[in-house]
Specification:
Elements lengths: L10 E2 L23 E8 L2 E8 L4 E8 L5 E4 L12 H7 L2 H5 L31 E11 L2 E13 L9 E10 L13 E4 L11 H7 L7 E6 L10 E5 L14 E2 L8 E3 L1 E4 L2 E3 L2 E5 L6 E3 L1 H10 L3 E2 L6 E4 L6 E6 L2 E6 L4 E5 L2 E4 L1 E3 L6 E5 L9 E4 L3 E3 L10
Parallel strand pairs: 4-9, 5-8, 16-25, 17-24
Antiparallel strand pairs: 1-2, 2-3, 2-11, 3-4, 3-7, 5-9, 6-7, 7-8, 10-11, 10-26, 12-27, 13-16, 14-15, 14-20, 18-19, 19-23, 20-21, 22-23, 26-27
Protein name: Peptidase A1 domain-containing protein
Family: Belongs to the peptidase A1 family.
GO biological process, one term: proteolysis
């Protein structure tokens, strides 16, 4: 199991090491020149971090999701395992909220959503004195299940409660009572949606902050740390600006081809003499692999004599001995993926290739995974654009 941690916290900062030591509340509305951003960490290929909600603040670990726009957190009404009703066991084996009160067995539970919050951090809505109910709910997709969140307004701090961070009141987000069985195995509590829109027309947290002029621009900047062996953190997330410490602030905006997700055109993709014509693409930081059209996949397989391992089904071939690049032309600018960055050694000069081939009828023939963003940053522009500035080299943040 991969155990990386991508920690997201948001505050005004001058240096990364000072990020959580600077109180910004009293300067929030007086100046737009301060930087808003924080450190990122990662668990099980999910980029996650700590936010806090309510008054007083309660910490919640959330995963980034680029395909949904809702911020949701589990509520104190989420079930715990039966043994948590025994005080001696609960103190040792269960999260604190399980021990504070007996479970409400009378509340109807969706029979298909039998999951628990036994080891989760939940939002105790009854303990927040700034919570306002929105009077409606929102149904959304979580993995293979359909969940329902009750929408509320409350205080949101983009960082843990013990460290001063960017804080806003009356932010709309969801609380979830019933979760699927698979939820208990995840390395996070809730989900922070970063999609540009959703079918329910509810504003994402980013759009809420931008519409209230709490961030200077409706953008999110993501930097993934390519120096993995020396990295203190796996990346940085910034709201409202491009972080010049880790990303080049000059970049070419790329228009989106969808109003619902971060989809854009790749004019062409080439490897050697072979070329894939114009195709749609998306980003997916929850996969390390690069997904490419069949023509590029075949070219790489042939060049490195790649075979499918009969046991693991992984793609294994000769390790790259020199730099060979996949060239992606996006909005008439060239971006490069080093094939070597898509490999991991399995011994005897053989490497596993972290590649996927797109289905023939797939709408998006390219999916840019986290390996691509060891060289480039991401700028999500909620006015309908995306950008990939060069990452600053030699940053170990």
């Amino acid at each position: 199991m991969l155990t990386k941690l991508l920690c997201i916290t948001l505050c005004f900062q001058i240096l990364a090491c000072d990020a959580f030591q600077i109180s910004i509340k009293k300067n929030l509305h007086k100046s737009k020149s301060g930087l808003i951003g924080g450190r990122l960490e990662n668990l099980d290929n999910n980029f996650v971090g700590v936010i806090s909600v309510g008054s007083p603040l309660q910490d919640i670990t959330v995963a980034l999701d680029f395909n949904s726009s809702l911020l949701w957190v589990p509520s104190e009404e989420c079930k715990c395992n039966e043994e948590c009703s025994i005080p001696e066991i609960c103190d040792q084996e269960c999260s604190a909220h399980c021990c504070e009160a007996a479970q409400n067995d009378e509340r109807p539970v969706d029979p298909e959503l039998t999951g628990t919050c036994t080891h989760k951090g939940v939002f105790n809505t009854k303990k927040s004195n700034t919570l306002i109910t929105a009077g409606k709910s929102q149904t959304f997709q979580y993995k293979e299940d359909s969940l329902t969140a009750d929408l509320i307004y409350d205080q949101l701090s983009l960082g843990p409660k013990h460290k001063p961070a960017f804080t806003a009141r009356n932010v709309k987000f969801g609380v979830v009572k019933d979760v699927p069985e698979s939820y208990e195995q995840t390395q996070y509590d809730g989900v922070f949606g970063l999609a540009i829109n959703n079918e329910n027309k509810e504003k994402s947290v980013v759009k809420q902050l931008a519409s209230r002029n709490l961030i200077s621009q409706p953008i999110v900047n993501v930097w993934i740390n390519g120096n993995q062996t020396k990295a203190v953190v796996d990346g940085l997330l910034s709201f409202g600006y491009v972080d010049s410490r880790v990303c080049n602030t000059t970049y070419q905006p790329v228009p989106l081809t969808s109003a619902e997700n971060w989809e854009f055109n790749i004019e062409s993709g080439t490897f050697g003499q072979l070329r894939a014509n114009r195709s749609k693409a998306v980003i997916n930081l929850n996969q390390h692999d690069l997904t490419v059209p069949q023509v590029l996949f075949n070219a790489i397989v042939y060049y490195y004599d790649i075979r499918t391992d009969p046991l693991t089904k992984a793609y294994v071939g000769s390790c790259p001995t020199s730099q060979n690049l996949i060239n992606l032309n996006i909005n008439n600018f060239n971006y490069f993926q080093d094939v070597g960055a898509l490999t991991s050694s399995v011994g005897n000069k053989q490497c596993q290739f972290h590649l996927k081939v797109a289905e023939k009828d797939a709408t998006q023939q390219f999916v840019l995974g986290s390996s691509f963003f060891q060289r480039y940053c991401i700028v999500l522009d909620y006015t309908g654009k995306i950008g990939f500035p060069n990452a600053v080299k030699g940053v170990f943040a």
